[in-house]
From TrEMBL:
Residues 1-24 are annotated as: Disordered. This is Uncharacterized protein. It comes from the Bacteria. The chain crosses the membrane at residues 57-78, 90-106, 150-168, 192-213, 252-273, 285-304, 375-398. Residues 1-11 have a biased composition (Basic and acidic residues). Keywords: Membrane, Transmembrane, Transmembrane helix.
Length: 411
């Protein structure tokens, strides 16, 4: 059965189907597909129906973080406070231990979260029967983009470019560390340093870019769905015309965002240990990063603002017309005539069957065309800010950092 046939069948069943039904099982799975997925599957690291994220996270962290530690023995086990210590390098912890691990662990969470959200379009059903074919086409295009060899090749190319920059940075370093030996003869990159250049850094950057690309694929899929004919209801109790289930999708990316923030926070902390930081500067950094994170998720959700805005406008006009008829009818019943523009029109006289639209009108007035809300994204916002706050604590008083964090999360 094709994607379109599966989508059409699910849409036709609509709300009459009580058991939970997945949207074409095995079709749009955000963590599946692509050359890297196939490589891992052939190596036995995962299976088609089992991502084994825990085991793979341990493996990739071992490759990125543990191997350089072992290659640097015995220097690796110098005190954390010792200059150039591997265990004391916050950047190593942020990128190769926390970042790489979080990116892999996030795959299961992201895949499950997006699959449920996409399936809800059919379970509600929100997609109108006339748009079922177009919905299937949109999913097909998203699948092709998800599996793109070119996209992953670009991610790999940029990861290798990052490795070159890491090499140049080590070659020009004038400070001895776990990665570089500095002597009278010159600078020499250690075995641990070479491993991070060839394996650790490319792996971190590749997983990061691959995750961002797949989110862009999802974003474009949502924006394409937003242009379809959707069965939205202005008086829906969720306050978003029936689309509020989408507002919380960013929380599927909690671990992924935490991984990025850990790397950024570690870089900030390394810089702060050498220079002073004011509360104002810290607040600016934290606010800027939160804005970037929210913009990442606002981009796909903003596409639904137009249909929701049109729904609200049209519904208010129609309910307003109905309200005028209803209340003028009641006015005639009580006063015997209308106070303004009295009429003996038979249609107006026989308006006893008109329902009172007041409640529906008030509910429609509260309809929000914005799906991204503070309450819906608190978890992902916290994941973005906590590592930054941890970096700030290295210089600023705990109370000041907590105050900034609280203000941003409660905006």
């Amino acid at each position: 059965m094709s994607i379109e046939e599966k989508v059409r069948k699910s849409a036709e069943q609509g709300t009459a189907t009580s058991p939970r039904r997945d949207l074409s099982p095995g079709e749009y799975l955000a963590a599946h597909g692509g050359p890297f997925f196939e490589l891992q599957r052939r190596l036995g690291l995962l299976r088609e129906h089992a991502l084994k994220t825990g085991r793979r996270a341990l493996l990739f962290v071992a490759l990125a973080w543990l191997v350089p530690l072992l290659l640097g023995l015995p220097r690796s086990f110098l005190s954390v406070d010792a200059p150039g210590s591997y265990l004391g390098d916050l950047g190593v912890w942020g990128r190769f231990a926390i970042g790489v691990g979080a990116f892999v662990l996030a795959e299961q969470q992201v895949e499950r979260g997006l699959h449920i959200k996409l399936g809800q379009f059919l379970k509600a059903p929100i997609v109108a029967p006339g748009s079922v074919q177009a919905f299937g086409d949109a999913v097909t295009v998203a699948l092709a983009r998800r599996d793109s060899r070119l996209a992953e090749a670009v991610c790999l190319g940029l990861a290798l470019l990052a490795a070159i920059f890491a090499y140049l940075n080590m070659r020009t370093s004038g400070v001895a560390s776990w990665a570089v030996d500095v002597s009278a003869e010159g600078r020499r990159i250690t075995a641990a340093g070479w491993w991070t250049i060839v394996v650790s850094q490319p792996l971190f950057v590749f997983l990061l870019l691959r995750g961002l690309w797949r989110h862009l694929v999802w974003a474009q899929l949502l924006r394409r769905i937003a242009r379809l004919e959707l069965r939205l209801v202005a008086t829906h109790p969720d306050g978003n015309g029936g689309l509020s289930f989408l507002a919380s999708y960013p929380n599927a990316y909690v671990l992924f965002i935490f991984g990025i923030s850990a790397a950024i926070g570690a870089a900030i902390a390394k810089h702060l240990l050498q220079e002073s930081l004011t509360t104002t500067t810290f607040s600016t950094i934290a606010t800027g990063w939160l804005v970037i994170v929210l913009a990442l998720f606002a981009y796909p959700l903003s596409a639904f603002s137009k249909p929701l805005g049109q729904l609200k406008e049209r519904s208010l006009l129609m309910l307003g017309t109905q309200a005028t008829r209803y209340h003028r009818s009641n006015e005639r019943k009580i006063l015997g005539t209308n106070v303004v523009a009295a009429s003996t029109d038979e249609v107006q006289q026989q308006a006893d069957d008109i329902a009172d639209p007041t409640k529906q009108f008030e509910t429609t007035r509260k309809l929000s065309a914005m799906l991204l809300s503070r309450t819906a994204v608190v978890p992902v916002a916290a994941a973005a800010l906590l590592p930054i706050a941890a970096a700030g604590v290295t210089i600023l008083p705990y109370k000041e950092v907590f105050s900034v964090l609280k203000k941003l999360l409660l905006l």
